[in-house]
Design goal:
globular, about 45% helix, alpha/beta, about 450 residues, Spore Coat Polysaccharide Biosynthesis Protein SpsA, Chain A, 8-stranded mixed sheet, two-stranded parallel ribbon, 2 domains, 18 helices
């Protein structure tokens, strides 16, 4: 078989693809060697072809990798296949069983990610810092033995362990010195960790054309044309059922949606922003980060226009009335979806995962305006770094939310939602997540 391109950007694009496959191939030749089977799957996946029978065969026969004649290429492909299936225990088992020598450094990222994902229960409870540290030290040693020259990666794993166990400022200093462009996408948030002194002025807004809606309380989403065409109408139609008296504002990057929106005829007030930001200096994956982060980059402008702004993802559903939630939390400036405010926790999620970017309410108070301004200045610095240095922007919005919360003055009042405000469906597994989200939004 022809050697597969195993550059990390190719593997991320291949195995993070949640769109429907181009076609499906249900064939399976179980007599072929396991090493050949995984390469066959990888070659098909690169062409957008889903092989469900082979997928199941590979999942059920991972132990064969320990005895089969696995080359570094086939082992690397197997690690990434297991990543696409969120098979964290299998990744961990494989990393303990096979010879990791000769595998590319990004496989070490997958091994540490699997360890971190396996701490789900501990991270949810917020308890167990000593156990986490002991286990993190053990896997860090194992990875250092396998990849002794991967200095920057080992520093990143050490910083992540420090952050999770409460040494937020020490971890931040370490993150800020690392080249975030070398890591797999789940660790791309490293590139968006800034020290307070790195943040200066915010965006000027010259590229924006804002047409507000009539409502006083709104939900804000940001998106590109592709996401608009896939999700916007379904999201707006379902939003009208729970928020008919509130508005929905689309921050549209690189296109004007008004002609499409005019044909919807929905019983909900709609606002639009056309964002003509110059994107030519950003790569495709950086652009994805900008599409997601634009709602926070320019949030302060919306807080000046509306009494409250609920920030959401377009591929989910705002389950409760936005104006009612703003009234319920009238003693807060910002309402977050996070565990950070829970008392008695001694561990927390990584900074780019600790605060949800798809379920946040900002009230038009002095504290709300100040927090929105801080988010804008933080993200503006990240975007400028992306343009000048080619650094990733993915997860920048969540990193900004965490550190702006961490750096906030005491007079900004934070709260958390008492009930689920936003609902999203989808497994995010290979070839599955997008279809599941569309089906959920289309449900009456």
């Amino acid at each position: 078989m022809t050697a597969l391109d195993q550059d990390v950007s190719t593997l991320i694009g291949c195995y993070s693809n949640t769109e429907d496959p181009v076609s499906t191939d249900s064939s399976l030749d179980a007599h072929r060697a396991f090493a050949d089977q995984i390469l066959t799957f990888g070659a098909a996946t690169r062409r957008g072809i889903h092989m469900p029978m082979l997928r199941q065969y590979l999942l059920e026969n991972v132990p064969a990798a320990a005895s089969a004649a696995m080359t570094p290429q086939s082992l690397t492909e197997l690690f990434w296949f297991l990543f696409s299936q969120k098979a964290w225990e299998k990744i961990d088992w494989l990393s303990r069983t096979v010879d990791l020598g000769g595998l590319p450094e990004h496989v070490a990222d997958l091994c540490f990610l699997a360890f971190y994902r396996m701490q789900k229960d501990r991270l949810m409870s917020g308890k167990g810092a000593l156990d986490f540290k002991r286990n993190a030290d053990a896997i860090r040693k194992r990875l250092a033995d396998a990849w002794p020259d991967a200095r920057m990666r080992h520093e990143a794993y050490a910083a992540m362990a420090l952050h999770v166990t409460g040494a937020t400022d020490d971890a931040r200093r370490m993150f800020s010195t690392l080249d975030g462009s070398i890591f797999i996408e789940p660790f791309a948030g490293i590139a968006s960790v800034l020290m307070p002194t790195d943040v200066a002025a915010g965006p000027d807004g010259d590229a924006l054309e804002i047409v507000p809606c009539r409502a006083k309380h709104v939900t804000l989403v940001s998106l590109d044309r592709t996401y608009f065409e896939k999700f916007a109408f379904l999201a707006a139609r379902r939003y009208a059922r729970t928020n008919a008296s509130n508005g929905l504002h689309f921050h549209c990057v690189g296109f004007d949606p008004r002609e499409s929106i005019a044909g919807w005829k929905l019983p909900v007030s709609l606002g639009v922003t056309i964002d003509r930001e110059d994107m030519h200096m950003l790569g495709l994956r950086q652009q994805r980060g900008y599409f997601a982060g634009a709602r926070f980059l320019h949030l302060s402008r919306y807080v000046d226009l509306y009494q409250s702004v609920f920030v959401a993802d377009v591929d989910g559903h705002v389950a409760r009335d936005v104006a009612m939630m703003a009234e319920e939390h009238r003693d807060a400036d910002i309402v977050l979806t996070t565990k950070l405010l829970d008392r008695g926790r001694d561990i927390t999620r990584l900074p780019w995962e600790a605060v949800s970017a798809g379920s946040l309410l900002v009230r038009a108070t002095a504290g709300g305006r100040e927090f929105a301004r801080r988010l804008g200045t933080y993200l503006h610095a990240v975007v400028q770094n992306g343009k000048a240095l080619g650094r990733p922007i993915w997860y920048a919005d969540q990193a900004a939310l965490f550190y702006c919360w961490h750096d906030a003055p005491d007079d900004i009042r934070f709260s958390t939602f008492t009930k689920f405000a936003f609902v999203q469906r989808g497994s995010w597994q290979l070839f599955e997540g997008e279809r599941e989200r569309l089906e959920f939004l289309a449900t009456d």
